[in-house]
């Protein structure tokens, strides 16, 4: 009986080594250029324009900007089955203290926020943030932003 147990363990070990090598060889044969492409920039030109304006304000207020923060970095799920609802969503800008304590979230709303799917996503975010007492302001995309008005709106929301 002992010999059979030892032989089964050896067979299992050999099988595990074989499967591990096969898996690694399969990964080496994948050409990721066929599946993915590199992004050049973290932000769109519209978001970058707003970021530069926002940076002036946050620098003055000794705050930090974190762009494109995934929702699961802002909220945590109490049950893993709810993770899928937040895993692929992000917030355009999170304003934080220097220790990265979250103070305020900002969504820059462009034309895509009028799409039905996006409206439902925004309603979910609004309700979630309201229920969890997370400050959120929505700023419509504009050609020109008034720096003072934006600064006052941020200060009022902090």
Layout of secondary structure:
Layout: H1 2-29, H2 45-60, E1 64-70, E2 90-96, E3 102-109, H3 116-131, E4 136-140, H4 147-157
| Rg, nearest Å | 24 Å
Q: How many individual helices? A: 4
Shape: extended
**Number of structurally distinct domains:** 2
- How far apart lie the N and C ends? 71 Å
What is the H/E order? HHEEEHEH
Estimate the strand proportion: 15-25%
Largest sheet: 4 strands, mixed
Descriptive key words:
single chain; 158 residues; alpha+beta; Endonuclease, Chain A; 2 domains; 4-stranded mixed beta sheet; 4 helices; 17% strand
What would your notes on this structure say?
The chain is an alpha+beta fold. It folds into two domains: 2-34; 45-157, 3-Layer(aba) Sandwich (Endonuclease, Chain A). The chain has helices spanning 2-29, 45-60, 116-131, 147-157, and strands at residues 64-70, 90-96, 102-109, 136-140. The protein has a four-stranded mixed β-sheet, sandwiched between helices. Strand 2 (90-96) and strand 3 form a beta hairpin. The chain is extended. The mean pLDDT is 87.
């Amino acid at each position: 009986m002992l010999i059979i147990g030892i032989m089964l363990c050896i067979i299992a070990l050999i099988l595990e080594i074989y499967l591990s090598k096969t898996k690694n060889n399969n990964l080496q044969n994948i050409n990721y250029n066929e599946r993915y492409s590199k992004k050049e920039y973290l932000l769109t030109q519209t978001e970058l324009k707003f970021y530069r304006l926002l940076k002036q304000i946050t620098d003055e207020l000794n705050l930090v900007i974190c762009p494109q923060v995934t929702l699961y970095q802002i909220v945590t799920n109490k049950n893993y089955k709810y993770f899928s609802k937040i895993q692929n969503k992000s917030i355009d800008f999170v304003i934080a203290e220097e220790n990265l304590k979250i103070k305020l979230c900002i969504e820059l709303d462009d034309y895509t926020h009028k799409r039905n799917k996006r409206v439902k996503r925004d309603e979910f975010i609004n309700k979630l943030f309201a229920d969890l007492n997370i400050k959120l302001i929505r700023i419509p995309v504009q050609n020109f932003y008034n720096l003072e008005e934006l600064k006052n709106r941020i200060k009022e929301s902090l």
